[in-house]
Amino acid sequence: MINERYTAKAGPDRMEHVLGWGSLAMLAIMVAALLRGHAEWHMIPWPLWPHLATVAVALALTPAILWRRRGDARHRVLGYAWLTAMATTALVSFAIRMTNEGGLSIIHLLSAWVLFQVPLIVWSARSHDWARHRRSVRGMVIGALLIAGAFTLPFGRLLGHWLMG
Q1: Alpha-carbon dihedral 46, 47, 52, 57, rounded to 10 degrees
Q2: List of residues 6+ apart from 52 with CB closer than 8 A
Q3: What is the pLDDT of residue 161?
Q4: Distance, CA of 89 to CA of 15 (rounded, Å)
Q5: What's the CA gap between 107 and 105, in Å, rounded?
Q6: Nearest to 151, CA basis, from 30, 8, 16, 31
Q7: Which residue in 2, 90, 96, 134 has the fewest CB atoms around it within 10 Å?
Q8: Where do the structural domains in the chain lie, given as residue ranges?
């Protein structure tokens, strides 16, 4: 288990640098796609806008959290904002229907996982289980932001359609 004093003072490791840069790259791709698709914005269903907004907040906060000192008040405030953005993204996703029948799709399992992970991330931090906290946050960044974000680009999905025209 990682020592509390060490964790609070530890800077980012290589993985956290990579995850931060990956988040910024995904944010840039998202912004580029949105700008290229502006002519079709009026056709977008309402749940997609808060979904995209909260994803953008989470992507922007990721490097701000991962690249700075841990354990202080600012880390906690940014962390709660990040978790709120992640939970809101997951909740709003249930209003987005991806299947032809208008029901839930396989991607909604990820949303359920995020909603399960959010309180566990808070609990692990409050109980000073830094190793679990770090693993859980990294898992959310990798799975719910980067991998899920990458899957918005192929297969005729909206952001991919806008980005690659």
Answers
A1: 110
A2: 30, 34
A3: 87
A4: 24
A5: 5
A6: 30
A7: 2
A8: 10-164
Angstrom distances, CA of residue 16 to CA of 137, 138, 147, 157, 162: 10, 8, 16, 28, 30
Give the number of C-alpha atoms closer than 13 A to the C-alpha of residue 60, restricted to the C-beta side: 10
Is 104 a residue whose pLDDT tops 80?
A: no
pLDDT number for residue 99:
54
Tokens linked to 75: 């880390």
CA distance linking residue 110 with residue 148, whole number of Å: 8
- In this prediction, residue 10 has a pLDDT band, given cuts at 50, 70 and 90, of low
Provide the token pair at 34: 């949105």
* SS3 call for 159: helix
Q: How many residues does the chain have?
A: 165
For 61-71, the pLDDT digits (tens) are 999 999 998 88
The pTM (predicted TM-score) of the whole model is: 0.89
